Amino acid sequence: MADDPLINDPEGGLPRLARIMARLRDRETGCPWDIEQDFDSIAPYTIEEAYEVADAIARRDWDGLKGELGDLMFQSVYHAQMAEEAGLFTLDDVLRGIADKMVARHPHVFGDAVIDSAEAQTDAWETLKARERAARAQGGVLDDVPVGHAGLTRAVKLQKRAARVGFDWPEIGQVVAKIAEEAQELTEAAPEDRFEEYGDLLFVMANLARHLDIDPEAALRAANDKFTRRFRSIEAALAAQGRSPADSDLAEMDALWDAAKAAEKAARQG
Q1: Which CATH number fits the domain that encloses residue 146?
Q2: 93 and 146 inside one domain
Q3: Among 25, 79, 213, 252, which has the minimal tally of Cβ within 10 Å of its Cβ?
Q4: Structural domain count of the chain
Q5: Is 67 part of any domain?
């Protein structure tokens, strides 16, 4: 198969990638690692690739984004190949399904419906999804919220779904009050209850993010980046003196942190 014209065609597009995947999974001549994989073992890589796409976008690394999108697309092809081997569905079924879904969920583009704002489109999208769930005879409001989402993302999706049927705080102040309540419960909890109470606090924090129209995962990633950036400033300042954080103390590092924070603020204002 080394001389397969499609595999060696740089313009082969998605069919070429699918052929490469099939070759990797060939039981006789494929890659031993790829042959051993299944849906469960590949799923974590799929999630990781999605995060790497988001990271490339956040860093405005457009050349890197091109590569990360390819990696993510390969994950879809990987799952489709395994599904075809199991007699479940094919890559063509996947592509047909997503194309049909996009046409059905955008009647204002591919039909006669009129939608004049992104907010109205979001409402219409959710209405169409609700009809699809009803057609599949799903009984519960939360039935098809994927369990594989990142925790904060899934929390927001669960809360949005519940809010659509009226189970929600109408005012942000009520959410903030609940955060204070959950924080108090956490500080007073017995050691064996801290895990649960901490989860409750995070869940309400996700609810606050939803009310503020903030993506909590994106906000946390930004906070992680900020912490990394400022801690590296501490390391650089100490290195200039021939020292490291291990040679410093909290008071000094805290002062260097404040200096890095002030420098960032001045740069933004400048």
Answers
A1: 1.10.287.1080
A2: no
A3: 213
A4: 3
A5: yes
Looking at residue 48, what DSSP letter applies? H
**Are 25 and 92 found together in one domain?**
yes
**Position with higher pLDDT, 142 vs 166:** 166
Q: Are residues 224 and 178 in the same domain?
A: no
The packing angle between helices 216-239 and 39-58, to 10°, is: 70
Over the range 119-136, which residues count as b (16 or more CB within 10 Å of their CB) and which as e? eeeeebeeeeeeeebeee
- 109 is a domain residue: no
Taking the C-alpha atoms of residue 252 and residue 122, their distance in angstroms, rounded to an integer, is 49
**Residue 41 belongs to a domain:** yes
How far is Cα 256 from Cα 237, in angstroms, rounded to an integer?
8
246: tokens are 């291990």
Out of 30-34, 94-98, 158-162, 238-242, least confident range: 158-162
220: nearest Cα among 58, 61, 64: 58
Rounded mean pLDDT of 8-28?
93
Residue-range definition of the domain harbouring residue 88: 13-104
pLDDT digits (tens, 9 = 90+) for 84-95: 999 999 999 999
Indicate whether 150 belongs to any domain: yes
Q: Rounded mean pLDDT of the chain?
A: 90
d(CA 207, CA 217): 12
The model's pTM is: 0.61
Q: How far is CA 192 from CA 59, 121, 202, in A?
A: 40, 45, 17
Same domain, 251 and 265: yes
Alpha helices per DSSP H over 59-150: 62-85, 91-104, 107-110, 118-135
Which H helix or E strand runs over 180?
helix 172-188
Q: Which of 83, 44, 46, 42 is nearest to 68 (CA)?
A: 46
